[in-house]
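Below is how a single chain appears once it has passed through the pipeline. First comes the sequence as given, then the structure the pipeline wrote out for it. We keep one example in the README because the format questions we get most often are answered faster by looking than by reading.
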Amino acid sequence: MTPDLVAELLRALMKEAMILSAPILIAAVVLGFILTLFQTLTSLQEQSLTAVPRLGAVALILLVGMPWFLGRLAAYMLFLMSDLHRYLG
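Resulting structure:
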């Protein structure tokens, strides 16, 4: 396996990882920002006020988006398996 091939594989892997994690991370950051702003404006200092809704939102996104996530992962696996002969020798 040449260094160029390894770099290509890692680039594709990082691209898929970023695409798959983006909806979850963006939702968690936006919800965390909104809840932190709410806490600041109302002077509430309860830590579970931000953690529980953020955890629920991430779980909901994972549940709703699971068919899309699995479809992307299956497509990436097919991409890897279709070029397996290039990677082995």
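Helices lie at 3-42, 48-82, 84-88.

See the next section for the split statistics.
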